[in-house]
Automatic annotation (TrEMBL):
Pfam families: ASL_C2 (PF14698), Lyase_1 (PF00206). InterPro entries: Arg_succ_lyase_C, Argininosuccinate_lyase, Fumarase/histidase_N, Fumarate_lyase_CS, Fumarate_lyase_fam, Fumarate_lyase_N, L-Aspartase-like. This is Argininosuccinate lyase. Residues 371-437 form the Argininosuccinate lyase C-terminal domain. It is found in: Cytoplasm. Belongs to the lyase 1 family. Argininosuccinate lyase subfamily. It catalyses: 2-(N(omega)-L-arginino)succinate = fumarate + L-arginine. It is an enzyme of class 4 (lyase). Pathway: Amino-acid biosynthesis; L-arginine biosynthesis; L-arginine from L-ornithine and carbamoyl phosphate: step 3/3. Keywords: Amino-acid biosynthesis, Arginine biosynthesis, Cytoplasm, Lyase.
Amino acid sequence: MRAKEKAKPVSRAALAGEADPRLVALSVSIQDDGALYAEDIRGSQAHVTMLAAQGIVPKAVARRIVAALDQVRAEFAAGKVRFDPALEDVHTHVERRLGELVGKDAGYLHAGRSRNDQVALDERLFIVAACDRCDAALERLQRAFLSQARAHEATILPGYTHLQRAQPVSLAHHLLAYVEMFGRDRERFAEVRRRAAISPLGSGALAGTTLKLDREAVAARLGLAGVTRNSLDAVSDRDSAIELSFACALAAVHLSRIGEELVLWTTKEFGFMTLDDAFATGSSLMPQKKNPDVGELARGRAGRALGDLVALLSIVKNLPLSYNRDLQEDKRPLLGGPDALVLTADAVAGAVETATFHADRMEEALGSGEALATDAAEYLVERGVPFREAHEAVGKAAAFATAQGRPMAKLTAPEWKGFHPRFEKDVLRVFDARKSLARRDLPGAPGPRQVRRELARWEKALGKRRS
């Protein structure tokens, strides 16, 4: 391009005159898709290498282009590329700079390729790498929970339903619930990665090309598992972007749940744990306060993740085949989600692994028998009483104890006998939380033997720490 020439948007290359500045402002995407420069350049290098192998581009030219693209990548990374709104997107910025480095030979690069299949490839490469980053962060998070669970096998506390004290569990069992959640999240990211790792390059604008491309060679060079099978679908498909956003959103919701518990458990009302000072903040006004910001931010980030998912679904919901410019708007909700998840997961992992859990306060919260009311009902079931009848009898005992201002564990054997004739003196043995846990020995239950098995299973599953 001559120095005095004004860049013309690629999307208006066949049109007369210049675009209205208002349309240019609306069309520009470089502020968002500029983040895909590395993926764009990687795809271009694989594409031109294939073109040379197929005899479509001279091999010497292809080598020059590949080397020049390495320089362009370095310039992007160093922040040396000046964004020009007239060039609209990352693809055009890369090609413009390539032209400055290798001259008209840069024109070979776009043979057999459209910006439609190019951006579809860029996004898929981004999604594959994003899934790997999210998986690694979630593994670190699992390790933090697993470490604390191993340290607190013997710590007991109330399990909750409706945020009301329900039945005794171990802290290890409670923490392992989050390990399970994040394990499912990791499975989802693996599934997203598998479906995303397919190359759309060669689909052209919508109908492929007459050039004899080797699509499989490009996919292999990029580390992808294969190629898309329908060109119309390939350039307009954003399923992988939506799936990635969904996986991020659900993982963020799980982080929000532990964030809520970090907030609750660190209050003086609960007093179950204390955050390390490195993962809390003070008040600008009240010097006595220690705020659990890490938990609050984890809750807040979930809202953003849910918004990204809804945005992506809304963008594609009414689009006819094939490519439509609406899809340009997918970058902002897609690109920020994975990094936000990684940052949140790492912060929560740090907060959990450095936290102090207060076993005495947790055990104290079990109270004096109310959390073992179900055990009393099951005592009767073991003696042949239908559960509904047993439930009613224990409910009457609970109401009586409340009216008397006495804990259920302090009711006498004759009093229990009055609520049901099948109660005997040994019913008083029911009101021992540790013995109650020991009896809960079904797979998946919080009994100590089962918890030890789950700890060992997860320690084996996670294996050695990644380097």
